[in-house]
Amino acid sequence: MTGATGGIGSAIARRLATDGFAVVVGYHAAAERAQELLADLPGSGHRTARISVLEPASLEEFAASLSAGSGALDVLVNCAGITRAVPHDDLDGLDDELVDEIFATNWRGPFATIRALRPLLDAAEAGVVVNISSVSGITGQGSNVAYCASKAALDSMTRSLGRALAPSIRVVSVSPGWVLGKYAERMPPEVLDTQRDATPLGRLATADDVAAAVSAVVGDLPFTTGSIVAVDGGRPLGTT
User: Fold this and answer.
1) Secondary structure element (H or E) that encloses residue 100, with its range
2) Which residues does 154 contact at the CB level (< 8 Å), separation at least 6?
């Protein structure tokens, strides 16, 4: 999986390891955190790998290493992503460089990763791709306009590839709302209170909620593809 060292990524890695998968802890720069996570995973057969979704050579090298090993990939979790808070009405604050960086990481990166690893997913005969998206792709409310658009594009890709790669590969988006973690910790308490009060289930998501959804998609929903699985407590139904 890509982006395994973040809060959501590490929870997903632990959950999949608990489910019995041999997990590749993919990281871009956080090698030390990747090693710490590796040591914390239950089971055996896990390893770390530097996977830069923006570097074709990195993806090719990772694909070659898998080919030389098991020769197949059961599950790909695309969890690498970036954002930065920019008010939606601050059009000048959302400069071209940030827009390009967000789309390159949040959309092109997952696409390039799927493209590089498709033969290995095909070899698994029932491969699954899980794209970690966001409810902001539906609501248009999030850290900035480009981030929301990138997640909408990711969901569109999920639908397209769910059709194009069937029946040998399933593709599903897991779409969280606000998740309690490092990004949320940087927000003023009143912002989190507003989001919590507007969520019908009365709380914000945890990283473990997202990991449970990924586990369900992989193991319990074998007839689901091209779908967006929400983990948002009904947030789009709220009034705020």
Assistant:
1) helix 96-103
2) 106, 107, 110, 131, 133, 137, 173
- Identify the active-site residue in 21, 27, 107, 147: 147
Tens of pLDDT along 64-80? 999 998 899 999 999 99
How many domains does the chain contain in total? 1
Residue 32, domain member (yes or no): no
**Which residues constitute the domain of residue 79?**
59-237
Evaluate whether residue 14 is within a structural domain: no
pTM: 0.94
74 is a domain residue: yes
Looking at residue 21, its pLDDT comes to 98
Domain of residue 180, CATH code = 3.40.50.720
Residue 239: pLDDT band (50, 70, 90) is: low
147 annotated active-site: yes
